[in-house]
Queue: 4 jobs
Job 1
Amino acid sequence: MSDNLQHIHSRIAAAAGRAGRSAASVRLVAVTKTVGLPEILELHRLGIREMAENRVELARPKVEAAPPDIFWHMIGPLQTRKAAEVAACFSQFDALDRLKAAEALQKKCEEQDRTLRVLVEVNVSGETQKHGFEPADLDRALREMDSFDRLNVGGLMTMAPFDAPESVLRGCFSSLRKLANAHGLPELSMGMTDDFEIAIEEGATQVRIGRALFE
């Protein structure tokens, strides 16, 4: 894992350099959904402080047993009946894809007297199987979310098509960057194991890496 992490850091730095950015402008989020507490503790020992899970029921035991200084991301779609657990367990929800989910999180955060950082998911690829707001609906959605004082909208997230040509990937990531810039949102969560370097070149501030860490 140490060698994998070092290689990923080198690739992040190189991609950032090609875009005229510093490596420090890109945050590595380790996706731990397929591993257990031993791997989480090893990542923590190696200096990783941001980790991500996609299922609340599997994440909770890990979150409770892991060191308290880990910043936990929820990256899967939200089942509204689990909004209370997401609000309680996670530092940030990275896949806010509909207003009903925002309303549920707002209500549970009020009940727990806490705030939750969120990223709004946008379906820039237009794939019917993908979650997220349509780009044309984003402005209205963000205006409605202004009333949710327990949700801190920090930026946008997208997932590019799998196995797509580089030109398509760049188009998706570039589109999200332009949307974020238009709305003054600083965080861009885009890019995974197979495409994170392209995402960084197109402005990603946060990349989600799982397989490349653990294979």
Note: The first helix runs from residue 2 to 18.
Job 2
Amino acid sequence: MESMNFLIKPLDSTNYATWCSDIKVLLLERDCWDIVTEREAAPVVKGDEIDARKLKEFNLRFNGTYATIYMNVSPQYRTIIVGLTSGAEAWKKLKNHFQSDSRARVMALKHEFFSTVIEPDESIVLYASKLS
């Protein structure tokens, strides 16, 4: 199967929901999504033997998972996941950062919403996009 080319806007403070969906599709296409969700683990050693080909293939996808996530995060947010080596860990850290369910986060979002005002020369479309 021919590999697809994707153009995904790097993750920033405004696009977590769409970025998340786009990266999921990319990882599904690369057969790496089960690694992120931890439904797939490295091949198990049976006795003293392990299928070297399967292990190498898994390691390539495992490393590719992290690389795909890392390279699609804007540089200012890469510090959140720098030093990690697992795509699953990176996914969880980014989710906790951008989609926190804490009361403080909810209050901050409400404050941001209610303090958004329309500028004198701003179109209604631009103003509405700031609210979403």
Note: Helices lie at 16-29, 33-36, 52-71, 87-98, 103-114, 124-131.
Job 3
Amino acid sequence: MNLLLMSGGRHPYEESTPVLKGFLESAGHTVTVREDAEALTDGTLNKSDVLIFNTLREGDMALDAAQQNALKGYISSGNGFVCIHISGCVPDSWNEYGE
């Protein structure tokens, strides 16, 4: 499977993301790691079978409207979305994320 692993933010993602990437690759997956949310709108997301959030996207790292719509469309199309650790927290600016 092709996995897109979104990382970054105010947490020790620089420590956990490489471990997670290695684990997933050892299971036979192809993993693309990105810290920039443009991955949701630049075509990278559409090449992925599953999106994994190992990131907290709020404040100055919040997703903009186009990125939110891309994520909603991706999930609505039946693709996988996995939130790890604090990624499951609902951003103040996007209540729909929790749904």
Note: The longest strand covers residues 2-8.
Job 4
Amino acid sequence: MDVRKTKHYYDVSAGDQVCTCDYCRNYVKEIRHAYPELSEYLETMGINIEKPFETMPIEPDESGHITDIGSQYVVMGDPSEFQETDISGVHIGIADSHPMTDLQEEHFVLEVSEVDLKWTIGQDTQKDNGA
């Protein structure tokens, strides 16, 4: 793994790729607060938890939560240096499949599975509309 190149990727490129759908906006808004230890762990590899490469949410439930069955992050460097682990009840491993990254440098994609987040997108809009 190349922490410096990974951090540079997130500082320069990854922000342009973050989806703006409600699911991804909710993920970005809630993930760091809901999983601070996971965030700290990913930061040791140069990963910004608020800039996922891919997310795989299911629909929000009646209790106001949404489960993301897999969130993916790009890591620059050699994947042989990475060891799977579990942090805060979340598994972190190398993704078996993912969208094309279009990166030429050596890299791999981590998958974080699964996370449970509060569904908060739209609540401000509902309040503003008198709901």
Note: The longest strand covers residues 65-76.
